Amino acid sequence: MKPSSSLSNDQKLKICHHKAANPSIKQSALANWAMQEFKLSKVPTQGTISNILAKRQQYESMDSTELTSKRQRAVKHPELDNVLANWVLQCQARRVALSGDLIKEKARQFARQLELGERTPEFSNGWLAKFNIRHGFKAQKSYGESGSADLDAIDRNMPTIKEKLQSYSLQDIYNMDETGLFYRMAPDRTIARRQIEGSKKDKTRLTFVFAANADGSHKMEPLIIGHAQRPRAFNRKSGEQLGFCYRSNAKAWMTGLIFREWLQKMDQQMQDANRKVLLLLDNAPSHVVRDLPLTNVQVFLFPASTTSKIQPMDAGIIAAFKRRYRRFQLQDAIDRDEQQKADIYKVDQLIAMKWAKAAWNDISSKTIANCFKHTGLFERETQKNEVGSEEQDIENELKDAINQLPISCPMSVHELINPEEEQQVAHEEISDEDLIKLSSSQDQEEEEDGEVMDENPPMSTKEKLNVLHSCISFLDLSNPNHVIAHKVLRNIQFEIRTIEKKQTTLDRYFCKEY
Prior knowledge:
There is one protein chain. By secondary structure, the chain is of the alpha/beta class. It is built from 22 helices and six strands. The protein has helices at about 10-20, 25-35, 45-55, 55-60, 65-70, 80-95, 100-115, 125-135, 150-165, 190-195, 200, 255-270, 305-310, 315-340, 350-360, 365-375, 390-405, 415, 420-425, 430-440, 460-475, 480-514; strands at about 175-180, 205-215, 225, 245-250, 275-280, 295-300. The longest helix is centred in the last third of the chain and has 34 residues, at about 480-514. Mean pLDDT is about 80; it is low at about 140-150.
């Protein structure tokens, strides 16, 4: 029999079971096992194995016919499935007891709103069972009313929280939180107000999901949520092809389904690293952990109304990110003003995402550890290094940039990095109407009114080297900062020359062969 290069759903399920039976096995070893076990023609890629493991629940919900297939049967009504699942997750976040009949009735209501008409499925008990299995929902139980915690509750619960944290090393304690970002917002109060009010139209808002551990040794790759799967600035590529962890919906909001996907991937990462970690979360409506089969991540939810006091991301980490993002933005605005551009704050989504990724990567482990320490959650010292001067230096740069820009009503730096509206859009509960909008935009390819930055014509190698030579000639090596810049520019020169040399060698080889 000729070896196959693809896997059936049954084989994928067996891979999941083999991983469960051997928790410490690496994905590369699991791929080699699969090739030998199923006589494949090639080893599955790490990405393939990772995707298979993340979909274990889906394979376990399949019947015998679906398992023998090499394709997963598509959900007949993905819009309905998504909106209903997000609604169930929001109900769980509010601790609302749901019966099967209530879920089916809500499904009928959403089907009418989605105008499925004759395509409306029969909402039988079998349909409900498959829906629950597909999303990992179990039988609903009744819960008491969830009350809001106040500062007195924090004081009462702090010893319990600290005791919980003592069971983990600092490198194994993580915090995750979301924030909105109006990525074109001007540091001008009048202009910014118009931009924020119009953001739903021009789609200049993104949601960022950040996570890091208490000693600052691991910053997870940020998840970015935008309005469209492939904005025009992506040039028909996906976010993953461009090097980002990216999801989209019509509102650019975090949803229960996106959160659960993110959390399962984190759990898989910790399995691969053979680590058991604690994840600190706030009580946002999308943060629904119930029924998720997590093995290596334990979730601790902060009491309601307490996160601004004790959540590390709110204690300065997100603010550090925004300082660095705004520094990129204002530096670019100054350049555009000097070039006499009409809209000096114009930036497309891809460039904004690149700035954001660089801003997150620039935050030091000391800064993150210091923010965890300032929450008061830790009896142990995370790090004794104070990094306030680093953040103050960036704030001073922002002040200088604002003073250089043509602004009639300038913002303070605090207003620039802490606009209240950015937090509101990240944590709002989603109405039924908005759930419908979110689910109906899954296949959106481009933003209708999206803008792409004007591209400068590509430079030749000679032009690039000439520009670098001019910059190097300008430097004064008696200035320590110029010495650092000199080293960086020389490294860039070397990289460009190396690439050019390789390309010239290839061209000569093919010319010779021809």
